[in-house]
Design a protein that fits this description.
- There is one protein chain.
- This protein is of the alpha/beta class.
- It has three domains: about 70 residues, Beta Barrel (OB fold (Dihydrolipoamide Acetyltransferase, E2P)), CATH 2.40.50.140; about 170 residues, Vaccinia Virus protein VP39 (Rossmann fold), CATH 3.40.50; about 150 residues, OB fold (Dihydrolipoamide Acetyltransferase, E2P) (Beta Barrel).
- Helix content is about 25%, strand content about 30%.
- An eight-stranded mixed β-sheet has the order 7-22-23-21-20-17-18-19, sandwiched between helices.
- Strand 18, helix 6 and strand 19 form a beta-alpha-beta unit.
- Helix 1 packs parallel to helix 9 and helix 2 runs antiparallel to helix 3.
- The termini are far apart.
Length: about 450
């Protein structure tokens, strides 16, 4: 096999990244935009020791699972790479993908329950985060997603996985920013002012927050103040759904999206979202599931499990964010301790607790690892909802000591979930179940809830 070679293959399945997997003379070939059972004519574009990468030249015989994507940019945008596959087949793929990932690390066949879905595989994403760029020597502002494995921006005017008003708002920001001489970010030169556009939409009532990430330091310099305030006023006047405009300061030369400082420019810095009957204040930088309808189903699933198996347990809510788990579960627990480092999230959690007059939830502003290092209490149940990288072994060891009965592990990364499960199982835990939730339709990503028993 050589670069540029044309080959004919039949796609066997998708890999964990959603690429088609085929074999040519027993050599593995990965193909973008492929579908299981496609017969394809492909061109080899990259050649490694153990595999090749190819692009489709011709679909010789399309799979029965292949459908027409809603988005014309699906093939070049890195946003939702499975739009060309029927939705039910996407769900089947995610179940098998999680099972295969678990087996590759645990060396044990584990059944994963078929993904639960809200039924909305379009217009489901209520948090939108677009990088902004301007090309060198040009004033035109581009915003969208990066092509896969690159920093080449795809300028997007229409995205079917988000509320349609978001397209209008982002296009308005680009147009008015150009008129106001607000420059887009140039990554190589680390110049330009507007770095990211972040929108947070309430599924509950349609209210919207706008967060503009600027390539500058706090506080806002007078050089940009007039223009940013003018843009904010134009946004608030044009769109009645926008309840507030804030800016975030990030002048670091990294891929980190948000800096540590925020400043409210107009309106309010929060909107209201609802989970399991409880309303929460969320801001632009607050961690909250991007798919509220599916998140509601996941929270209900966890609540039903605890209520069916325990009578008023004590609960430890790690990586708590705005303490959504702790607050939702407070009425079926005797006491809840929620630990979160971000001060803004802690304040919003405390406001919700006060609003509902909840007496049995304690919110601790602390790094979770530092808290459990000093914690003298134990809990019946621990809920873990860590970042995508998962937990380290030192942290998991401490969680095992402070948890008496059950760990409920919420994860968006099957690989880190499998790795952490391996450590827990090797240290006396028992896996009860894994339930998938399709939080991210039309993408290879999936949320999983693992129930892990510590009772001998």
């Amino acid at each position: 096999m050589e670069l540029g070679q044309i080959i004919n293959v039949e796609v066997q399945k998708l890999n964990s990244e959603g690429l088609g997997l085929a074999k040519f003379n027993d050599f593995v070939v990965f193909i973008k935009d492929a579908c299981p059972d496609d017969v394809l004519k492909c061109k080899i574009t990259d050649l490694k020791k153990n595999y090749a990468v190819a692009e489709i030249v011709e679909i010789v015989s399309p799979s029965k699972f292949r459908v027409t994507p809603k988005c014309k940019l699906q093939k070049v945008c890195g946003g939702c790479s499975l739009q060309h596959i029927s939705y039910n087949e996407q769900l089947k793929f995610k179940k098998v993908m999680v099972e295969d990932t678990l087996y590759s690390i645990l060396k044990e066949k584990i059944e994963v329950k078929f993904p639960i879905t809200s039924g909305d595989n379009y217009n489901y994403r209520y948090k939108i985060q677009y990088p902004v760029r301007s090309k060198k020597g040009q004033t035109r502002i581009l915003a969208g997603y990066f092509k896969p494995a690159s920093h080449e921006l795809v300028n997007i005017k229409y995205c079917p996985i988000q509320p349609t008003i978001c397209d209008d708002i982002i296009e308005f920001i680009k147009t008015e920013a150009e008129k106001l001489s607000i420059s887009g970010y140039e990554e190589q030169a680390h110049s330009g002012i507007l770095r990211q556009i972040l929108l947070r939409v309430s599924e509950l009532n349609g209210d919207i927050l706008v967060l503009l990430v600027l390539n500058t330091s706090y506080p806002l310099d007078d050089i940009y103040k007039t223009e940013i305030e003018a843009l904010s006023s134009l946004l608030m006047a044009k769109f009645s759904q926008i309840k507030g405009v804030s800016i975030n300061f990030n002048n670091s030369k990294t891929n980190v999206i948000l800096g540590e400082q925020n400043q409210l420019i107009s309106g309010q810095n929060y909107i209201i979202e609802k989970l399991c009957g409880k309303e929460f204040k969320i801001s632009g930088e607050t961690f909250f599931q991007v798919n509220p309808k599916c998140a509601d189903l996941m929270f209900k699933y966890i609540k039903d499990y605890i209520q069916s198996n325990y009578s008023m347990p004590t609960l430890f809510d790690a990586y708590a964010g705005i303490a959504a788990f702790g607050i939702v579960l407070s009425d079926i627990c005797s006491s809840v301790t929620s630990v979160e480092l971000n001060k803004s999230s802690v304040l919003k959690a405390q406001e919700t607790i006060k609003m509902y007059d909840i007496k049995n939830v304690e919110v601790v502003a602390s790094d979770t690892l530092k808290y459990i290092d000093k914690c003298k209490k134990t809990f019946d149940i621990t809920i873990l909802d860590p970042p995508r990288k998962g937990c380290d072994e030192a942290f998991l060891s401490k969680v095992l000591k402070l948890t008496n009965k059950t760990i409920i592990y919420v994860s968006c990364n099957p690989k880190s979930l499998a790795r952490d499960l391996k450590f827990l199982l090797n240290n006396g835990a028992k896996l009860i179940s894994i339930q998938s939730f399709d939080m991210f339709p039309n993408t290879p990503h999936v949320e999983n809830v693992a129930v892990i028993s510590l009772q001998k």
